[in-house]
Sequence to fold (461 residues):
Amino acid sequence: MDKRVILRSIPNMNELLEDEKIHKFQEQLGSEQLKKVIRNVLEQVRSEIIEEKTESVPDEKYLKERIRKQLEKLTEPDMKKVINATGTILHTNLGRAPISKEHIRQLLYMVSGYSNLEYDLEEGHRGERYSHFDELLCRLTGAEAAMAVNNNAAAVLLMLSALGREKEAIVSRGELVEIGGKFRIPDVMEQSGTILKEVGTTNKTHLEDYEKAISEETGMILKVHTSNYQIVGFTESVEMEHLALLGKKYGIPVLADLGSGVLLPMEAYGLPHEPTVQEMIQAGADLVSFSGDKLLGGPQAGMIVGRKKYMNILKKHPLTRALRIDKFTAAALELTLREYLNPENALRNLPALKMIAKTAEDTRKDANTLRQMLQEKKMPFEVSVEPCESQVGGGAFPTEHLQGYGVVLTSRQKKCQDIIDAMEHLPVPVICRCQKDQIILDVRTLEKEDMDMIVKELELL
Ligand SMILES: *Cc1c(COP(=O)(O)O)cnc(C)c1O
Fold:
């Protein structure tokens, strides 16, 4: 067919705008953006015809469908809920610690209008945004003072910048950590203007290594928790207790970047001992920093707890303003920390802790429930329950696994990776993994409503 005839047969803007399913986007997009999308698709179609990718008159239905798809993409939120069936609880790519629905409900009420974020209602004047949780943090950790910034990386940067600028910070060679996302202790030191003074060796550092490094130039001793790796075998590091005494002897602040920041002992869940924030304070650390969305199970934030005299220096530092937390975080942190007043509430109401605390038997029950629900529908899979191992994630307990059960899907027709891809493209994407060439849905990270959704959605596959 003659190209000009084909080109002329394409519906024009006005005809397309009259289509009900296209027109309904006008409200959300306004006519300018709406026309822009249509024009764009029309141009694409025209150039396809000219470049001879299309030989015939484009089907009108197909054209409208193509426009609608573009419009949907533009109007739907790009960030969406996903179902985490990987079993990795603090999955950094999936937003780390999940926040409970009840907390979100309360949080919405607090932040949707105005709040006393920085207003002291009792005194009737300006207040501090930390005031809503600093006493709680002190009560829970035994520290004298507390504050919070954007994340733990920010907390470490602030501590170093405020206390170590143009001075030396003594760090063990075994603790020069790189965590994900380009956060390396030596780089953060450089950024903060602190001079790194490495001591000891990769596997062994002794108290006297620290003491020998102390000079007029020393600004601090920093202990970094090696949260995401383990040096095994012939190793030695110096406990906070001894470092704190050393710091005291020479009048040097001793700081700890604890990473995860647990407030409850994790041994009860088959995990090795992870130093708690309270233990660090008890041992004499002057300042301790830790994350809000790792094992604490709250929003992204970086907590700093410790001695008042150092906290006051941090609070006055210009970086504090740049790194400050927002009102959502302040509200969510308060709600999270309040749960810890009674540890049973923390374990019941903070989703991440609840998932860690699930026993193998709990997960077996859940896996059986999901298996049954799936078997009641006609699915193109064979469904069974099998043991699997979950991970805490977020760089915590890198070598440990939580034993549990998951639902295994086996398909004769489809390859594992193809099913994973298809599940990631569902309306509520399901993220899962392959185990021995089979799909495994680890129920440890699933809520009851996630299971309902999985059953509903797998029918679409
Ligand atoms: C995770 C971690 C950090 C960074 O914490 P974010 O809250 O992710 O910024 C810093 N130090 C250590 C040791 C960590 O494990």
Notes: The chain has a mean pLDDT of 93.
